[in-house]
Amino acid sequence: MSGLTVARQAVAPTAAAVPWTPLLVVAAVLVAGTGLTSALSDRPGPLAALAAGALAAGAVAALRDPADRFLAALPTSRLARRLLRLALVSGPVALALVAVSTLSPGPAAPWSSTAALTLAGLAAATWLPERRILLAAGAPLVWVCVTELLDATAGPLDWWHGRPWLVAAVAAALVVAGRHR
Amino acid sequence: MSQLTDLPGTSATAGIAASGLTKRFGRTAAVSGVDLELHGGVVGVLGPNGAGKTTLLRLLATVLSPDAGQIRLLGRDPERPSERLEIRRRLGYLPQSPELYRGFTAFELVDYVATLKEHTDRRWRARECARVLELVGLQDRMHQKIRTLSGGMQQRVALAASLIGTPELLVLDEPATGLDPEQRIELRSVLSDTARRGTVLLSTHNTGEVAALCSRVLVMRHGTVGYDGTPAGLRDLASGRVWESDSPEPGAERSWVTADGRYRHLGTPPAGAALCQPTLDDGYLLAVTDPRRPR
To answer: What is the ipTM of this complex?
Structure first.
């Protein structure tokens, strides 16, 4: 109960502390790129996959917290603060996904893949040092790009797309295992 | 080890107990086999850069877990999640040169910290934020954005946040950084007051701060505690081992030129040397002097 009250009261200041720029830039570029692509061509290309990776990367980048060291010894854990941030950025991510899916001539950007990639980024952020958070943010996008470049349609490399719930479950387990880090 | 279990966990006996405390980063032992038992008062941690002060403070603030050894803080084991949570509710921590949210006002930042410290009564929180900001002399600046405050003021905002809820254990890493002399004196008064109800552990490079404020001082060297005692005892380490002359002394362990152009030396004085009254700086320098290192 206390945790929920803390989370509710921390929403406004956490929203003020979130670095929104990377996510908003990514979302704007994706929406504009999708609109432009659909106007010029009716071939879907890798847009849906890139959108999932880029939005996941933007969401994880929002976890970058310059005051992390300052807040490190408080009863509200780093993981709790990060989950609150992810909850806050999930709104803009969802809007961007809807926009990209609406504009895209091909299949819609998969929600489950975006969620799995975001959780994978959170897992990387949990196990990497705080100052490496942008490396963790890049992980989902790199994973998607490598899959696209290698044209992998099966095997673990494609699991973010083919088995997103498995990826999400493994990532969630890694996050739970590292929750006291 | 028996002290660890003996340390009571009540607020009246707030304290720190550690045994064989070790923390490594790669091959480097930042803290190595430290034993400690602190019961209240202001305790200073001195030491050269890289001696392990910050790592020790992070261990004692529950921010890092030790690789070996045991800690009990306020009678609880920080390695157990439920006990760590209880410690953190009663702990204030100020890291070295903290980065703050520059777009927040001082009040907003302290209020955010109070919220994350699970103080959910908004009216109490507002009063408490005003109180701690007044304690650090920022009552007239509390609604100013942090980016518009000077470095010393930002340091005081961070200090105010660490004082939320009157913690029983306060761990401060170089809290006087960026403060002017008047602000340092005010800081001493705040910390002395806090120490009446608990334990204040602070790291500093300023021996004057230790002399004015601390009842006990630890001197760290190569990750170990090289000295643990009173500031007067630290000063007395240099008793009979400080002398001045008009020329360098190759046999001295340390030598430096004073403001009046004379040479001050530490070590074993030669016959007929003009011995001086030792200062805390002299004692500190002897405590951190590595006899193996050529001078």
So the answer is: 0.88
